[in-house]
Amino acid sequence: MPPKNEPKERRCIVTRRTRITEDLLRFALAPDGSVVPDLKARLPGRGVWVTADRASVAEAEKKRLFGRAFKAEAHVEPGLADRVERLIETAALSSLSMARKAGSIVTGFAKVEAAIGKEALTALVIAADAADDGARKMMAALRRRFGDTGTPPVIRVFGSDQLGLALGRANVIHAALLEARASEAVVRRVRDLTRYRDGADRTEDEIGSPQAAPQD
């Protein structure tokens, strides 16, 4: 008998490769025959699985693989890959909101810089449209604290307007995720998003790495 906590595996309908379900996206067939993204893998009925990257979802749509996999008429609304990306992005931003409610996120340049110097950090968040000078100062603070190894990941995938909406304040440029379960959830969701955009075979340390921000 396999171990109780052994990861579940499913086969991608595009690549035909077997992967753990964490590396796949589930799609369900609605009663009206439409294909529905099931990111939480909770919808009833039979599901099919696609490698969790944009190219695979687009290929499944283009080659009409959903109908073949479901062995039924399956209607795919045009732009499925875009819709899935929006859902994953929304989940990542929602996790930031949850971290704020849990009290595990600090915002504002001075407060973030202070947190880098003394707090246990899960990740640093820098807005994608942040000025290079501010980003360099944050990276310098990280290097002073952690050196060149063991540096917490840097998340730089959201604009300041998106961060502001998620965190309930205007013009958020810098934020620090303090060590907590809610912060770990943010990192997981952001990894899901960057993996979907850039390819499912990226390694853990490549996602949100400090090199994403300007260096001195």
From TrEMBL:
It comes from Rhodobium orientis. SUPFAM superfamilies: L30e-like, YlxR-like. It comes from the Bacteria. GO terms for molecular function: DNA binding. PANTHER family: BLL0784 PROTEIN, YLXR DOMAIN-CONTAINING PROTEIN. The keyword Cytoplasm does not apply. Residues 10-85 form the YlxR domain. Pfam families: YlxR. This is DNA-binding protein.
